Structures are given as C-alpha cells and as structure tokens.
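Illustration: OsmC family protein.
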Amino acid sequence: MTAYTAEVLWSRSGEKFVDNRYSRKHVLRFDGGIEVVGSSSPHVVPLPYSVPNAVDPEEAFVSSLSSCHMLWFLSIAAKRGFVVDRYYDIAEGVMEKDSKGKLMMSVVTLRPEVSFSGGKQPTRNELEQLHHEAHEECFIANSVKTEVRCEPIPNALSQVTHAK
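Result:
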C-alpha cells in the first residue's frame, strides 16, 4: 500500500465570513513541495469570491483522469515498441444533477491526440487497444467509485469550545 498526500490551506483574510462573501482562494500543496492556487469554480461561486485563474476541484478531477490515462498510455506504448513524440488531450468533464438532485461529474471525456515517429506505427486497432489498456490500468479511473471519508481532527480552539 502507498499513501499520497495533498495539503489544502485556506484562511480568512478579514472578511465577515457569515455573510458568505469571502474569498474561496486557497493553496493546494503536494508532497513534492509544489504549491498551486486553488479556488471554487466561478461557475459555482460567482466572482469576486472565486479566482478564475486558479485550479478548481472540478478541473483537478478532470486533469487527474487525463494525466493518469496519459501516463499509462505512454508506458504501454513504450513496452510495445511505439515511439510517442507528443500526447495532447483536451479533457472535458460535465457536471450535472444525479437522480437524487446532487451535482456530480457525470462524465469525463478524454480526447487524446498522439503523434508517433519511427518505423513502427500503430494501426487504428492497435491505437484503440493502447487507449483501452491505459483506461483499464488508470488508478484514478479505477478510483472514481472510491469511498470518500472525512475524519475531522479537533484543534485546540474546538477542544476548548467543546469542553464547556
């Protein structure tokens, strides 16, 4: 078993907060040390409370599926002796209500365009097979049905508040 971590940090910047007029800007920090600005999507929370040039959770979800698929595709293609020069994908996720009225990412469509070089070029069937195998191996695609748990950690302030 391998564990992966991501830190998410948000703090109030003086806004009143209870009026729901606060910035959704936050920091996503990954185990390699890189930090990315995150926010809610402007489609979900209007400007100026969202940051349009930040990564929102929906985009992160779509990009993680696309990235995982690509990494498996490259690995499988290399093992089969195909030389990939370029892989480009404009992935798209659609958010809509499910049968219970809850918003969800109902479908994510990957549209990879792959360029090969060298004497060995995949046939259309082989290309489709490479993508099929990459999809079957993709950890993120296999995880979409994952149970999501929330285990809050009490902090000193909440411990004092609850101790009364």
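Reading the tokens back as a structure: Confidence is low (pLDDT under 50) at residues 158-164.
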